[in-house]
Amino acid sequence: MSGEDESSGWQLTESDPGVFTELLKSIGVPLVVDDLYSLDSATLAEFQPIHALIFLFKWVGSSAEPSSGGQYDPDFPGFFAHQVVNNACATLAVLNAIGNMHDVPKGKELNELISFTEGMDPQTRGMAITSSDWLREAHNALSPPSAISLDGLGLPKTSEDAYHFIVYLPYASSVYELDGLKNSPIRHGSYSEAGEGWLAKAREVIEARIATYPPGSLEFSLLAVHEDPLPKLQKGLEEAQASGNHAVAQELMSKLANENAKRERWAFENSLRRHNYVGFIHALVSIMAKAGTLDKAKEDAKKTMEARIARRREQGMDED
Asked: Active site includes 164?
């Protein structure tokens, strides 16, 4: 969850697959993350094998009752940590997932952290995780703190919506929901290994949760944590070329090109996230002021904002 309370140096994280994939890479985990716009079988099949689902939703307050009909499992034998500071929920969701993937390679520091916290209760484990400097640095790498502070200006406080990351994954033949703001993991029942496996059960749970939102609501998003498809695509292309199967080779080349283009876009967007634009903005404003265009730009911006507020009011929406 993110909010205005003490964050202990943890910055807000975007719900973006490129950000999560870079985070996994920085902690030595060779998985990738992609947006899911549907839970239908065809969409899920594109990303198989899927190891976990990360769900982002608007947080409206904690409840003692488990979500979507699940049951608390206080005896959960796997890895589970509480969220003890604000803004850390994205990385905590990732760790609550990765900590239960025993066959997935992990970086040296991550392995040491998981081993160090073995046997701890969720609250103590959460404190140990969020006290880890190297992990906080990895988390903040693509979400640097704002270089502009409005503190001390006497501006009115405004409340902002808070969003929270949780994770769904298979463990011990059951689907679990790991939410760092809950006392214990939530067990949503066993699943059949046949067909779609754990994802069929996860779909039921997530769709039931989404159904609690108003129709057309955009207050949530879903991400799939899955195997990196590049090695498999590259191997398949080499085999198709060696066997002279040109149709298959052409199809695989197209998929490889799309995947590489996506990675290039992620790299470019992440480079923008790392950049500090304060100097550029200051220079631009100075140039506009000297050229005599700043006042007009300010008036145009005010008119644009007034028109946007008017449209939102017409649609029955609150002002930002």
From this structure: yes
Edge-to-edge strand order for the sheet containing 31-36?
Answer: 31-36, 220-227, 50-59, 162-171, 174-178, 186-190, 71-72
Q: Give the active site residue among 51, 82, 89, 139.
A: 89
pLDDT along the chain (320 residues), means of 10: 59 89 96 94 93 88 66 95 91 96 96 96 96 93 64 55 89 96 94 91 92 75 95 95 94 95 92 80 88 90 88 60
From 51, 82, 164, 226, active-site residue: 164
The β-bridge partners of 190 are: 174
- Distance (Å, whole) CA 81 – CA 97: 10
Helix, strand or coil for residue 38?
A: coil
Matching residue, tokens 């790498």? 141
Angstrom distances, CA of residue 98 to CA of 41, 58, 139: 24, 23, 15
Q: Is 139 a catalytic residue?
A: no
Model's pTM, two decimal places?
0.81
